[in-house]
Specification:
The protein has 482 residues and is α+β, with helices and mostly antiparallel strands. Helices cover 23% and strands 33% of the residues. The protein has twelve helices and 24 strands. Strand 6 and strand 7 form a beta hairpin. The radius of gyration is 25 Å and the shape is globular.
Length: 482
């Protein structure tokens, strides 16, 4: 570990100025950076030979002092690289630069911070983690947030039970450049889909979410934490036992890939960074049911999710929950038209679809990411996707974000992290409530690409072009595995 006392960088100077505005008796502040390494060294000369691979991350510790609030010590900011890589999936992390004893290092991850409960609260630090993914400067200062919201620390103060509303939090995220997908679980009439689906649709594509839940703390009430990753337990029992598979319509049932999700990976400014939260530990708020006993007061608050704010790039119009439904709907119109072929995986795809056991996974990408993904793919017999088709897609796909709904089957998804195809839906286009053919881009199934050739919304017709890859291939992000 290397310990260095910091001077007054702009963000620390701003916070000290704001603390003095809020508490006129503010006396002093000191900050130290602790940088952590796996390599052993005891001189600056030896540090010069240490690489980024040896850099675990850093933590800036800050101490503020005033007679009105005493000594406050906290982690002002920290980035620590993920520690478990086998089943932890964290996407969208940034490279954070850190100059240690004159040498520049970088660590990839999501920034963690603790509130001072005076000029910022838990919502601010959760916003800082999420907003950094979109902000043009790579980080968003507390002063920028407070100026945006009219918090001047004189007429409008934070702390003492005062926090931010979900609407204020959305304003901050949108100012940073994010598109917010909020869900309200405090209102029994809202009836949104399970909050886990909202979180998963964002974090699986590399965009954080913020979960706001109730506590029994008399001073707090609600607490906000940023969620940015998940664990995937390939041997989990839940998907096979769970009877609440997502039903869209008659004959259209599938298994969401988040059924294999075991834990969410999150920061909690009270406890630390990169914690795992069991998927079902937090729960929707129970609402009174006529004829049933009224929930106890603590049951109506503690561990209950009140709001979720998922984030996406601002151009995205279609949320991941609806994209997954639309992708499944198109798939079931394509399968009856799929050309007959001596292809066991095409037969299995239809078999599992009819048995309502397909696994669907939403993933947001752009055309360049999709064609780069296709270039890496090889089926189980090492057959690649045809280069001519990849070239045609590069030339003809418009430059807009797409939802890729990956298609798999339970044993293949869980054991091999592989799929049998995907459906692409336009993400920057908001389709009509009924089937809207303008949202469809293409599908790739065993042996073929499917392109829309005509028909009506009630009876779409498809053209099938041989793809070259006839078997199952790797999920995006798992290319190279077999």
């Amino acid at each position: 570990m290397v310990i260095e006392k910091l001077d007054s960088p702009d963000d620390l100077r701003e916070e000290n100025e704001d603390l003095r505005t809020r508490n006129a008796d503010f006396k002093s502040s000191a900050a130290y950076r602790l940088s952590f390494f796996t390599a052993k060294f005891n001189t600056q000369q030896r540090l010069a030979h240490v690489s980024d691979a040896d850099f675990i991350g850093y933590a800036v510790m800050k101490e503020d002092n005033a007679p009105s609030f005493g000594d406050k010590r906290r982690v002002y900011e920290s980035v620590i690289r993920p520690s478990r890589l086998v089943n932890n999936f964290v996407r969208g992390g940034q490279d954070w630069p850190c100059q240690v004893a004159g040498k520049m290092f970088k660590v990839n991850g999501y920034l963690y911070a603790q509130q001072n409960a005076l000029t910022n609260v838990c919502a601010h630090v959760a916003l800082r983690t999420a907003a950094a993914r979109f902000h043009p400067n790579g980080d968003m200062s507390y002063r920028e947030m407070n100026l945006l919201l009219g918090i001047d620390h004189v007429n409008v103060k934070m702390g003492d039970g005062n926090g931010l509303t979900t609407q204020q939090m959305q304003r901050v995220l949108e100012a940073a450049g994010a598109k917010c997908v909020p869900a309200d679980y405090s209102n029994p009439s809202a009836n949104p889909p399970p909050f886990q689906k909202y979180i998963y649709g964002s974090i699986e594509s590399g965009y954080p979410a913020i979960v706001i839940f109730g506590t029994t703390d008399p001073d707090g009430g609600l607490h906000a934490v940023p969620v940015f990753g998940h664990t995937l337990n390939q041997d989990t029992w839940v998907p096979n036992a769970d009877l609440s598979y997502f039903k869209i319509g008659e004959g259209t049932i599938y298994i969401p890939s988040e059924s294999w999700l075991s834990m969410f990976i999150a920061h909690d400014d009270n406890w630390g960074s990169n914690y795992c939260i069991p998927r079902h530990y937090l729960r929707p708020k129970p609402h009174p049911v006529p004829g049933q006993p009224v929930p106890a007061p603590e049951e109506g608050v503690s561990q209950c999710v009140a709001h979720v704010i998922s984030t996406m790039p601002k151009e995205v119009q279609l949320n991941p929950v609806r994209a997954e439904i639309i992708g499944a709907d198109y798939l079931f119109t394509i399968l009856p038209q799929l050309p007959p072929a001596n292809n066991s995986w095409a037969e299995r795809l239809e078999l599992y679809a009819n048995a309502h056991m397909l696994v669907l996974r939403p993933y947001l990408l752009d055309p360049a990411e999709y064609t780069a993904h296709l270039e890496k793919l090889k089926d189980w017999q090492d057959k690649p996707v045809r280069e001519t088709m990849i070239g045609a897609l590069k030339a003809n796909l418009t430059k807009e974000r797409l939802w890729m709904i990956e298609l798999s089957v339970p044993e293949l998804f869980s054991a091999n992290l592989r799929k049998v195809g995907e459906v692409l839906i336009r993400a920057e286009f908001l389709p009509a409530v009924d089937r809207d053919l303008g949202s469809f881009v293409l599908a790739r199934l065993p042996g073929y690409f499917a392109l829309l050739s005509g028909g009506t919304p009630a009876d779409p017709q498809y053209q099938f072009i041989p793809s070259g890859a006839e078997g199952h291939v790797q999920l995006i992000g798992c290319e190279g595995d077999k």
